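User: Design a sequence. Structure:
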């Protein structure tokens, strides 16, 4: 179904209702959302660009006790013809626009195939005359407002390269369409998959009369509290396709005053007359993920002309368990997908590394926290090892381990209330760090596993979602996950049973990648992380401080 975007108008009441639904999800423990801003009537304003009881080094010994009112949106036609020219500071004054269903629309006369995709083939037939900027894959942090450009950070403008970008597929939870359109040229065609309010019956496709912009609202089916939380990009240029997995939404806050993380790799087109490369796991997994997100088949088909053989990361996705299994495309999701990837990475190790793999430490950071327990930490840890068995001989020489024993190997990072209050950009970024107060004080909550992270950029809040597993005597080996998954059962699901493992209670659509064979080193007091011969910048330091007696997690101001 195709709907017209040129008649788009805002619906603040729908947005408020949407956010009330999110609060209900939080109360039920289904998910804790960090990617929405419900500070209605506020703006960033007054940005100040100036500037324990125990610690644990990520990779230390396992069993050592670790120490403005929202402006009225422009018509899409105006956004297309007159992209906004605003400074970063001015952009921060505008709250994100949530794309909602127009009350009135005129069905477009153009089909998705006719309006969006007729000239992709001409792109892929271009000769590969230029080198790929990121042929091996790199990790970057988003460049925070007021900080200098460095080799570790990157802006959205640098990722998109608007002057040469031909087409783009993007997915996001929060969308500010005016802001996004200002980052691409007037000739670039966009397909954006985004979250929407199911109660308004908005599933289908919205598109502009010109056919330049298409918004995809997937069919949520029977899902009660649907959340499309995935964040990925496929950017089409003349000589290559850029793949981006990130933790950042498509609105200004995530790219200016919050620290997010991105993985970028460029893949060449298969040239005319060149033998098609055998389909690799990465390419298959990517196509399946796009199908799960209801990406139009005409877009997915263009990937048949892309050579993904140089990919070295593993894709991890989540799809709600309420989704009809006949409509799913990947074999596994959430924790079970994590288990399968971990098992694959372990089997690739030599025999010397096999034993220490089962004595790994797991470090988990997300900008939202869900209802977790010691049992959940146990299950998550075991899946990170590549198994679901609660008693594993190589973890302990004899006897059966309790959930508490295994949970001691899991370290959960989260900002403290003081860090939230003292961040240099005020309430707007703080509202993106979500933790329910009553959840923390619940007797079943494993508060002893909480650690305060130290952001690499002082007084900045981290919105990235990063999971690290380290093994070896000094934790010198391991893997890193980055993407959209927060540390919540709503994102990862729970384990249904151990004999015939399956994931249940996934609520969200999520997307991320795992970097295998990561090396961790510490020399002269400085920690370095490398993968595939390149440095991996992390949004936090590799030494976490255990919560003190007076510390509590950073709570959303309305909780």
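Assistant: Done.
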């Amino acid at each position: 179904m195709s709907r017209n975007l040129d008649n788009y108008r805002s619906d603040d009441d729908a947005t408020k209702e949407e956010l009330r639904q999110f609060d209900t999800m939080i109360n039920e423990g289904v998910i804790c959302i960090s990617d929405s801003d419900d500070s209605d009537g506020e703006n960033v304003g007054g940005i100040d660009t100036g500037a324990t009881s125990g610690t644990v080094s990520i990779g230390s010994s396992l069993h050592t006790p670790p120490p403005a009112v929202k402006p009225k949106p422009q018509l899409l036609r105006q956004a297309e013809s007159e992209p906004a020219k605003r400074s970063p500071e001015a952009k921060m004054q505008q709250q994100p626009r949530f794309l909602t269903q127009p009350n009135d629309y005129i069905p477009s006369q153009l089909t998705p195939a006719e309006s969006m995709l007729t000239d992709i083939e001409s792109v892929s037939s271009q000769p590969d005359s230029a080198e790929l900027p990121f042929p091996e894959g790199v990790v970057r942090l988003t460049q925070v407002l007021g900080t200098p450009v460095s080799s570790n950070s990157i802006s959205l403008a640098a990722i998109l390269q608007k002057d040469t970008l031909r087409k783009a597929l993007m997915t996001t939870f929060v969308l500010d369409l005016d802001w996004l359109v200002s980052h691409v040229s007037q000739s670039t065609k966009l397909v954006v998959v985004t979250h929407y309010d199911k109660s308004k019956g908005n599933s289908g496709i919205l598109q502009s009369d010109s056919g330049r912009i298409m918004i995809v609202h997937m069919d949520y089916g029977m899902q009660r509290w649907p959340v499309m939380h995935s964040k990925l990009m496929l950017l089409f240029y003349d000589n290559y396709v850029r793949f981006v997995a990130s933790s950042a939404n498509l609105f200004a806050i995530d790219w200016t005053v919050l620290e997010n993380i991105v993985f970028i790799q460029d893949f060449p087109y298969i040239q005319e007359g060149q033998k098609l490369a055998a389909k690799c796991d990465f390419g298959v997994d990517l196509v399946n993920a796009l199908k799960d997100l209801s990406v139009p088949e005409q877009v997915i088909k263009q990937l048949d002309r892309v050579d993904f053989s140089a990919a070295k990361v593993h894709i991890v996705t989540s799809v709600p368990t309420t989704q009809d299994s006949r409509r799913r495309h990947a074999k596994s999701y959430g924790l079970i997908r994590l288990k399968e990837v971990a098992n694959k990475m372990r089997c690739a190790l030599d025999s010397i590394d096999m034993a220490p793999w089962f004595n790994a430490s797991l470090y988990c950071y997300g900008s939202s926290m869900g209802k977790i327990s010691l049992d959940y930490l146990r299950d998550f840890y075991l899946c990170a090892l590549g198994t679901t068995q609660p008693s594993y001989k190589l973890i302990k020489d004899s006897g059966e381990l309790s959930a508490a024993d295994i949970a001691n190997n899991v370290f959960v990072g989260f900002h403290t209330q003081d860090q939230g209050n003292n961040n240099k950009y005020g309430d707007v970024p703080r509202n993106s760090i979500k933790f329910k107060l009553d959840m923390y004080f619940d007797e079943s909550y494993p508060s002893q596993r909480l650690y305060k992270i130290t952001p690499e950029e002082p007084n900045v809040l981290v919105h990235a979602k990063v999971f690290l597993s380290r093994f070896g005597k000094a934790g010198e080996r391991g893997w890193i996950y980055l993407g959209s998954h927060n540390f919540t059962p709503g994102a990862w699901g729970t384990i249904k049973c151990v004999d015939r493992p399956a994931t249940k209670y996934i609520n969200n659509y999520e997307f991320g990648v795992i970097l295998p064979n990561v090396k961790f080193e510490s020399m002269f007091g400085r920690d370095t992380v490398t993968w595939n011969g390149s440095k991996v910048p992390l949004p936090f330091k590799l030494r976490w401080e255990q919560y003190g007696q007076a510390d509590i997690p950073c709570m959303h101001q309305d909780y």
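Residues 1-34, 36-53, 60-129 have pLDDT under 50 and may be disordered. The chain has 18 helices and 26 strands.
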